[in-house]
Amino acid sequence: KQYLNQALTLDPDNIDANYFYGKFLLEQGDHQAALPYLKKAAALPPRPQSLTADRFRHDEVVQLLNGGETPE
């Protein structure tokens, strides 16, 4: 949790930091707190150097928002 908070402090618009912090909060059972981070991760544009990875991350976020499950 400490490292995720630090990553968000350093770069609040980082797709991965928002996704992983939101996912962490979901796993802790704090669904309300997770939503803003997951929604932000879904709304952020893909980074030019990471288009494929960011598109995949976006799909994971949408799946979490829709059903709380990650793809297998």
UniProtKB/TrEMBL annotation:
Pfam families: TPR_19. SUPFAM superfamilies: TPR-like. This is Uncharacterized protein. It comes from mine drainage metagenome. The lineage of its organism: unclassified sequences, metagenomes, ecological metagenomes.
